[in-house]
Amino acid sequence: MLDKWTGRWVAPALNRLAGGLGERGVTPAQLTLGGFAAGMLALPLLACQMYGLALVAIIINRLCDGLDGALARHLQRQSDAGGFLDIALDFVFYAAVVLGFALADPERNALPAALLLFAFVGTGSSFLAFAIAATRHGLERPRFEHKAFYYLDGLTEGTETILAFVVFCLWPEEFALLATLFAVACLVTTATRVAGGYRALLAAERSSSDRQEV
Questions:
Q1: Exposure b/e, 106-115, CB count within 10 A at least 16 = b
Q2: Which pLDDT band, with edges at 50, 70 and 90, does 209 fall under?
Q3: Can you give the C-alpha Rg of the chain in angstroms?
Q4: What pTM does this model have?
């Protein structure tokens, strides 16, 4: 929901940082993989209840996630392969953070964590399934022109997920309640994406059929 606005706010700073990194020979793939490695450190840190350090790892991961795309555009190296790697590792990272909280306090956190992972499957599958179908129909992405994939926006997107992870780390004793609330929001996102995606693709199919009949 907030990505379309936060993207505009942070883009100038990311572009400046990306320019400096490009001059030092850093590649987008290095940022993607380095950020993923840093983010995965959050899993053991959360399991050990080292929430402050885990938050640092999460922030580094998200910073690299923003910078790799900016650097790719700066170097004119945007590619489907890079977009795929970025998206795939993002989903693994998201799941790892939730697993970390489940391991930190299994008795209190395991069930809410499972619910949140279930909700993440819905948001992730609707995200990727629509992206694949939209590519086949040549649909454009006017609101997210710098993204590697076309996808439907929703109540919970990247910005909301980052904020949720920050809140989880700041108030870990409330993870069960916070994760449940965020899971409900993710399920709403899944429902709206499925409904909106179905209507968009149905309209695209009808338009294509009408053009073929003319």
A1: eeebeebbeb
A2: low
A3: 18
A4: 0.84
